[in-house]
Amino acid sequence: MSRAVGRFPHLRQDVAASLVVFLVALPLCVGIAVASGVPAELGLVTGIVGGIVTGLMPGSSLQVSGPAAGLAVLVFEAVDAYGLPALGVIVLAAGLLQLVMGALRLGRWFRAISVSVIEGMLAGIGLVIIAGQLYAAAGLRAPASGLDKVLGLPGAAVDALADTEALASLAVGAGTVVVMVLWRWAPGPARAVPGALAAVLLATVVALALGLPVATVEVRGLLGSLQPPGADAFGALADIGLIGTVVAFTLIASAESLFSAAAVDRLHHGPRTRYDEELMAQGTGNAVCGALGALPMTAVIVRSSANVQAGARTKASRVLHGVWLLLFAALLPSVLAFIPLPALAGVLVHAGWKLIPFRRTVALWRAHRGEALILVVTAVSIVVVNMFEGVLIGLALSVVKTAWEASHARLEVTDKGAGPIRVHLSGNATFLRLPRILDALEALPEDRPVELDLSEVHHLDHACRTALENWAERRGAVGTAPVRVTGDGRAALPESEEPAPAPPA
């Protein structure tokens, strides 16, 4: 034992942390799988791969990977559209694409994605998860689209209130959420058990003791749930829609993992994340999950922060959490059959709520309204359209905002009543600011000379230069003195103006 402690000086802390992460991950792996429309065991498979395979690889030392609530909506849509056999192909292709991106050292570029877009994406996913799981909590079938889920909630509430079994199911789900919210105020020893696990255990005991008519998890067995993609499943890659789904899986899983890595790095003082290597680690894990027909994985901030807060020092903790998941899936799979589905729905409603950055949105609105607008538009677009197109809308809006800010130009007019009118243009003069610039210039008196100072213009694009030349040419055509330009290396506009002839000798 002393020799093991000598080789692994932090073994005790890592083992203790791994048990905490295992207890946090267990209900989430099962709940996310059920919410994704796949067998519960597939969530455990992804957690196992995330712990043992991705956990052993370099990149980040303390963040934990596994199935994420942020991808549950996309997985459900993919399974609904292409079938469960195609899921393995999609996840495998996404993993291989992540490996290529990591090899090309593109991991660091994900940090350039607007944080508002990422937070808006998570908020939109959270809203869809909450809406969908409210149906599941009542034992009702949820509509397919996010917008229909939201709009159908009033009718679902009426149906649930008229059905005794639906009310019992809803009570179990609501009780699960209440326990999770109040668990932080539990006595000290009790808080050692993660709130999600405690809530599911209590819901299971209550449902069994009272004989409540609620649905429970369907158990197929670990090996029986694995569905490696066959040769015929790869033919689906010819579908353009499926290719778009692969791209969506890749970009969203990569962005969520690398943003999680940045957040986890702020929680500890150990080695920093190497983003390209972490992207390859995520790609390897997803490739293995795809080959097994399991759910896609990302690095998950909830499990990662629990790992750090539990005192983990090395990657051994996340590897061991995968070992505990494997032992549970191999030895105790029948335990899953006692878990009420509305309890898992309650866990996911709570997880979806935590994805919505309420405080962050309010702070953004006060300080940077443009960023807050991007966040809200991205979230609403995901609910109204779908996740992939909603993220694209958010990215496009972010690019437009950046272009608008980058084109900031200031025009100052100084008119002393006599002599030339001095116009000072500064900043980045691009076509986006051209209408305001031309409005100001064309409003100048036509019977006075103008001096245009461009010395503080950082960038003058072709559209602006051409417009200024045309304005100067029109102004000179009415008999006014040519516009004198300073700071641009030329005496006057337009460029076509001929130099004055030299005086006779």
From TrEMBL:
Entry's transmembrane regions: 15-35, 42-62, 82-104, 116-138, 166-183, 195-216, 236-264, 323-353, 373-400
Membrane association type: Multi-pass membrane protein
Major localisation: membrane
Tagged with keyword Nucleotidyltransferase: no
Compartments reported by the entry: Membrane
Protein keywords: Membrane, Transmembrane, Transmembrane helix
Protein name (Swiss-Prot/TrEMBL): SulP family inorganic anion transporter
Native source species: Streptomyces viridosporus T7A
Taxon lineage: Bacteria, Bacillati, Actinomycetota, Actinomycetes, Kitasatosporales
